Amino acid sequence: MKDNSKYLIVDKSVLPEVFLKVIEAKKLVSSEGKSVSEAAAMVGISRSAFYKYRDNVFLLGENSRGSTVIFALDLDDRPGLLSNVLNTIADFGANILTINQTIPINGVANVTISAEMSRLSVDIEYLMQKIKESEGVLTLKTIARE
Predict the structure, then answer these.
(1) Going by DSSP bridges, is the β-strand pair 108-116/95-101 parallel, antiparallel, or unpaired?
(2) Structure pTM?
(3) Helix (H, G, I), strand (E, B) or coil at 68
(4) Strand ranges (DSSP E) for 3-91?
């Protein structure tokens, strides 16, 4: 039987300890303003372990609808590209809260966008797929869901 589900619900007692520590570190970063280095040290994991799992480990109560989602993107350095991404997010009912962009290096700009999702008209996975399909979007990750 083939199952196309993307997510599983697993009792935390059977998870590797590193996943639980990543969740704790994420809480320290988001709610207490700790740096990733500080949070990782406080919970006893390496920074590389934090970055390896942070986009894929969430508590059951964390979801995208009615919450804030923070996206990290790498975009080609071309006029209008960021505007197209923002329009895609807004077109599906999300409210853009913040936008941070680095100075492009080697033709690639790193962008972080936070958006409030309570009025999102589609599933978060569909929204992400539409953003990924945009010309010039090199990478897209969800880095936080609050």
Answers:
(1) antiparallel
(2) 0.55
(3) strand
(4) 68-76
20-26 own/partner pairs: CB under 8 Å, 24+ apart:
21/45, 21/49, 22/49, 22/50, 22/53, 22/54, 22/57, 23/57, 23/58, 23/59, 25/50, 25/54, 26/54, 26/57, 26/144
Q: What is the pLDDT of residues 88-130, one digit of tens each?
A: 999 999 999 999 999 999 999 999 999 998 888 888 888 999 9
30's tokens = 């988001």
Per-domain residue ranges of the chain: 12-53, 68-145
Dist. CA 123–CA 93, nearest whole Å? 11
The owner of tokens 């807004």 is 90
- Amino acid present at 132: K
Amino acid, res. 114: S
Is residue 27 over pLDDT 90? no
pLDDT at 63: 45
Going by the DSSP 8-state scheme, the letter that residue 105 receives in this structure is B
Angle at 29 between CA 81 and CA 60, to 5 degrees: 85
Q: Per CATH, is 68-145 categorized as 3.30.70.260?
A: yes
